[in-house]
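Quick one: structure for this chain?
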Amino acid sequence: MKKMMIAAAMTVLAGAAHADPVAGTWKTEVDDGAYAHISMKPCGANICGTIAKAFDASGPIDSENIGKQLVWDMVPGGDGSYGSGKIWQPSTGKVFKSKMSLSGNTLNVSGCVGPFCKKQTWTRVN
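Got it. Here's what it folds into:
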């Protein structure tokens, strides 16, 4: 029994040690009067993000976009950098080639469609 408990504890610790530092919930900047909480987590070897909650100036709102994937195929590059991903902008419906840079509780997200580029700074919620 003691060996099983030790093995289980080691498995949990190993999983925590391999958790990507960008995993968690992030608050986007306001875009077209609304912002969202994005749940970032591994999807295979890469990172993906799903819209967990949506807000406007009055507070939480019901949005048809909750549960939709906003970020996908972000490849961890080490040292808090991520690239070769895609990001969807709900207000325009456009999908941008994207990259991210993590620094503490700040995530700099940028993306381009042709010559047009946009960027946002997201803050960690948890």
